[in-house]
Specification:
Length: 234
């Protein structure tokens, strides 16, 4: 396990990297589906999750392409919940409204809270998330994530991997980008950070986007414990 040197600030992606986004959305979908003698079928839940995820991805891409004005995650999640409700036949307004905020109730991975706490004794630790500025603090509170600073991409009306999102973190760090480490479970996110001049570390998660053979990151880790050890080894 290689050590990563000359880092002043560590920046974490949140969705997927520190919280289980698909798992949290699945739980919310199961809760929203009508009660019956049998639990909702896994395939049915996964189909609804796909509808949700495809809507979010499509709309964020449309925003990036200039085909839609910026809309924050609260707006896009509410749209996704509406599509899911139409598909599943959900008609209770309170149920649909709660489903729309499912992205604010995502569980942390088992090593996330303790890993952040350990690392924060040695470095300023930032969160950098596509989650909107209202959703992000609620998400952090629910998952128990504690930051020195949590940055929402909404501040620059864009979504990662837009370069202005990474610049937001670099500016907040107050040091050269090559002394700022971006940590994510998504190779596409790390590529965006690299393009902005940041250092990069991949952390493997079950729901992440693994590196390809052509990706060259400063470190690759099986979990946060390994990452923290590499960063704090002296």
């Amino acid at each position: 396990m290689a050590e990563i040197r000359d880092i002043e600030v560590v920046v974490f992606d949140v969705l997927g990297t520190l919280v289980d986004e698909p798992g949290g959305l699945r739980a919310a979908l199961r809760e929203a589906l009508p009660a019956s003698d049998d639990a909702p079928d896994d395939d049915a839940v996964d189909a609804l999750l796909t509808i949700w995820q495809q809507h979010v991805e499509r709309e964020q891409q449309r925003i990036a392409q200039g085909l839609r004005a910026y809309a924050n995650t609260e707006t896009i999640d509410a749209e996704a919940a509406g599509h899911v409700a139409d598909h599943a036949g959900l008609t209770d307004p309170a149920t649909v409204a709660r489903l729309a905020t499912a992205g604010q109730r995502l569980p942390a991975w088992g090593d996330s809270v303790a890993g952040l706490e350990r690392l924060a004794r040695h470095f300023p630790v930032f969160g950098l998330s596509n989650a909107g500025r209202t959703a992000l603090p609620r998400l952090n509170a629910h998952a128990g994530l504690r930051w020195h600073q949590a940055l929402s991409a909404e501040a620059v009306s864009a979504y990662k991997p837009a370069p202005e999102v990474y610049r937001l973190a670099i500016d907040a760090a107050g040091c050269p980008p090559e002394r700022v480490l971006m940590v994510a479970a998504h190779a596409w996110d790390l590529r965006g950070a690299q393009a902005a001049g940041m250092r990069t570390a991949y952390v493997r998660r079950p729901v992440g986007d693994p590196p390809t053979g052509s990706d060259v990151f400063d470190g690759r880790f099986d979990g946060l414990d390994d990452l923290v050890t590499a960063l704090t080894a002296r």
